[in-house]
Amino acid sequence: MTLRSLLLIHWLACRSSFVTRVLAVSIIFSGIALGQSIVVQLVNGHDGKPLARVRVYVGFDDLKGRQPLDLTTDALGEVQFEAKGAQTIQVHPVGEVTCGEQPTRAPYRNYSIEEILKEGLLTKNNCGHLNAEPLRGKLLYFVRPAKWWELFKN
Question: For 40-60, how does the pLDDT look when each residue is reduced to its tens digit (9 = 90+)?
Answer without folding.
Answer: 999 999 999 999 999 999 998
